[in-house]
Amino acid sequence: MDLTLLIAQLLNGLQLGILLFLLASGLTLIFGIMDFVNLAHGSLYMVGAFFCAAITQLTGSFVIGVVLALPATGLVGLAVELIVVRQLYQRDHLDHVLATFGLILVLDTAAHMIWGPDGIVVPLPDWLEGRVEPFEGVVIPVYRLAIISVGLGVAAGLYGIVTKTRLGMRIRAGASNRNMIGALGVDINLLFTLVFAMGAVLAGLAGMMIAPITEASIGMGNSIIIVTFVVIVIGGIGSIKGAFVAALIVGLIDTMGRSYLDDLFKIFMTDQNAETSAPAISAMLIYILMAVILAARPQGLFPPKGR
Amino acid sequence: MAEVLLKVSDLYKSYGGVAATDHINLEILRGEIHAVIGPNGAGKTTLISQLAGEQMPDGGRVEFQGHEITHLPAHTRAMQGLARSFQITSIVHDLRVIDNVALSVQAQIGHSFHFWKPARADIALTEPAMEALRRVGLEDRAAEVSRNLSHGEHRQLEIAMALAANPTLLLLDEPMAGMGTEESARMVEILSSLKGEKTMLLIEHDMDAVFALADRISVLVYGRVIATGTPEEIKGNDEVRKAYLGDEDS
Amino acid sequence: MFDQLTGLGIKGWFTVLTLIALALVPAYASYTDNAFYLDIAMRLIILAMAAVSLNLILGNGGMISFGHAGYLGIGSYAVGIPAYYEFYEGIYQIPLAIGLSALFALITGFICLRTKGVNFIMITMAFTQMIFFAIVSIEEYGGDDGLVIEARSELGGLMDIEDDTTLYFVCFISLLAVIYLVHRMVNSRFGMVIKGAKGNERRMQSLGFNTFKYQLAAYVIAGTICGYAGILLGNFTGFISPEMMDWTRSGELIFMVVLGGTGSLFGPLFGAGAFILLEEYLSPLLDFVLFKGAGTYWQFLFGLILILVVLFVKGGITGLLERLDELRNRRKENLDG
């Protein structure tokens, strides 16, 4: 067992988990508090990536790109909430699904119109390129550490907000019982708009962080949104803690599965069989995981009390 | 000695340390109308919920016709002869009045894996359904879409659906909820006409109705039954008067 | 007037004319020697079939399945993979497609239907993505690039669907048969339980229905019908790819059902028609109305239309037709009375 590879893959899995958490945390709140099925969350992820890429290209600084793209994405989220989403809270899920599906098309095509069909490369500043070697033979890209630290920082920040502030209390109350918070005199409209915009910023941040690695590209949100759904469902809708745990589990299992499943299979299968079946099974791994967890707990791992 | 149809022993359910149902003992005899009364928050809804099978108790037993049903799901209990009406009208709003009642009939006559014959033309369903509607005086509204009915008519529909199942025991949760005097009187008439024919556990706030209909009354306060007896006995019971009916003369 | 004799009304006539138009397409195609309309119409019919099956569980049952396109994929690949090994006989392909569709629906339905609301939507989506990724990673069958089917299913001398017109009528008759079957099902005792469970599941259970059983049955039936549509799709296109099963395809099916009018009989057909029209003609329309090249961004307009339909069009096309009929009847009453 190659230790270097193992550590590298663990960190990879952690990185994926962190990114999924950024996406899932906002989305699980939107689902949990507003009971709103937001398919367009992945498009906000893309919007964040594009804003960051464009600004970085313009200013030459990745950091400025991130700093300016965050509020910009928040504004897009705000606009979306005010114009479309707000009209739909009272409607049933079917309407949410279709409207946000339409929103995906609008946002994706708008990105196409503004930035063209090809992706935009996001260059990293020198101090984020390069690697560190904490132990003998273990080489880690600096940027990966940066992503993980930022992600953990945001997670800690979210935890602080949700558990220690009044806003957080209202959010938790809303996730458990949304009818109550209206009765408690909280301005629902404001709360909902805030939660949605927050979710947009978090999604955008995830997009910005992955963009230097994968490029900002049209439709990049459409595949990750499904994995985000898996995370939320496993974690329990409305639960940030659930999103965190589930995101890490999903990130690790997906990454480790892809790397090591064929080795695992080779233990009890012929090499040839292992090599044909492993890619397919590892692609399905997180869905099988989801199915198993849901069979035992249809509400997910940490559903907020009252659900 | 009349047969005990429903026997509730030591029923217990708590939420976060507070007992909503605090070791309740209750017996419903065949043919009687047994009313359960009590102030708000006494635990009446939780009780009916556990009897109907929507919630599972934390402790205790429920026996129906001699068989234990404590942990059976709602649909199984309905098939054993337990029918329930809801305090807040619970019907299929998009379907017609007769469709709602026909569904109640349909549930009782075998499985529903019939894919071909139109249900609305099925006399085996529509005749008993119309009969139930006649019983409650709603037959003229049979073809109406359920959501168009008045509140009082909704309450009548609730009863019709429960009746159409030809049940052994009716669990009625505040059938007169939200009704005016005239509508209430009509509902009392309907329920009166079923006296002796159907066994009922009746949860109600309307005291006039309760004293007019009930053979026996149980009084629920803070999740406990503090008294069971005939209407006269209950009226004269000091504890009950203090807890519920008020100290003034009645 | 003509329609007063037959009592069909606007909705009725719209339906009849649509069906007649569809029936005449092959004749028109051979007359003009242009297969274009035949192709569009066949695709329309197959998608309509898929949409009708989705309507059974979505429109009538309230189960928002976001993975329904998966069955089109299963059906197609059940034709394509045997064909890859040069097994073209329908006698293998058809039972395989139907069996696999039913099995997949049974297993996933069993898990999905224990969840509610938002969870249900996302889990159905995730399961179909699962097969999507599974197939993409199987290099042997083309993976991402897809698979070409060299020959259509052999139906043992019964008929030759290599001939486009024959295949077309197989599709058309199948669509009519499926619509009729669904019609009977929706109005049967089974259908009433499904509709009741959509409206008020809690009440249905308290009446004595084990709603899970019935919803699972409906889910399996819908998946199987869609799998059958997949067989036709695979034969029609001759080229299958995992992309058929992408969740965005499922979204399009849902759009067709809603645009046509959820719960209505012919709604899915109208919805599929509208979708195909938009897909084909929105781009050239934009090129014409705005400027050349605007057409590449047709999905922007499509997305907008989607949002507007959701916000403002209640009951879809069928709802619109019914409101027109109502207006007409009221006008007649006013004139008579």
Describe the 3D structure.
The complex is a heterotrimer of chains A (307), B (250) and C (337). Chain A is mainly α and 307 residues long. Chain A has one domain: ABC transporter involved in vitamin B12 uptake, BtuC, CATH 1.10.3470. In chain A, 76% of the residues lie in helices and 3% in strands. Chain A is built from eleven helices and two strands. Chain A has a two-stranded antiparallel sheet with strand order 1-2. The model of chain A has no long low-confidence stretch (mean pLDDT 88). Chain B is an alpha/beta fold and 250 residues long. Chain B is globular, with a radius of gyration of 18 Å. By secondary structure, chain C is mainly alpha-helical. Chain C has a domain of 216 residues. Chains in contact: A-C, B-C. Chains A and C meet through helix 4, helix 9 and helix 11 of A and helix 6, helix 10 and helix 12 of C.
Number of domains of chain B: 2
Low-confidence stretches of chain B: none
Calculate the mean pLDDT score of chain C and round it: 91
> The CATH topology of the largest domain in chain B is what?
Rossmann fold
The helix-strand sequence of chain B is: EEEHEEHEHHHEHEHEEHH
Main pleated sheet of chain B: 6 strands, mixed
Number of strands of chain C: 2
Compact description:
The complex is a heterotrimer of chains A (307), B (250) and C (337). With 250 residues, chain B is α/β, with parallel strands linked by helices.
List the helices and strands and how they pair.
The complex is a heterotrimer of chains A (307), B (250) and C (337).
Chain A (H helix, E strand, L loop, with lengths): L2 H32 L6 H19 L2 H22 L9 H23 L15 E5 L2 E4 H23 L1 H11 L1 H6 L4 H27 L5 H16 L4 H29 L2 H26 L11
Antiparallel strand pairs in A: 1-2
Helix pairs in contact in A: 1-5, 1-6, 1-8, 1-9, 1-10, 2-3, 2-4, 2-8, 2-9, 3-8, 5-6, 9-10, 9-11, 10-11
Chain B lengths: L3 E12 L2 E12 L3 E5 L6 H9 L6 E6 L2 E2 L5 H6 L2 E4 L11 H12 L14 H14 L14 H14 L4 E5 L7 H13 L5 E5 L3 H7 L2 E6 L2 E6 L1 H6 L1 H8 L5
Parallel strand pairs in B: 3-8, 3-9, 6-7, 7-8
Antiparallel strand pairs in B: 1-2, 1-4, 4-5, 9-10
Helix pairs in contact in B: 3-4, 3-5, 4-5
Chain C lengths: L1 H5 L2 H24 L3 H22 L11 H16 L5 H23 L4 H20 L10 E2 L15 H24 L1 H19 L3 H27 L1 E2 L6 H14 L6 H23 L8 H15 L3 H21 L1
Helix pairs in contact in C: 2-3, 2-13, 3-7, 3-9, 3-10, 3-11, 4-5, 4-9, 5-9, 7-8, 7-9, 8-9, 10-11, 11-12
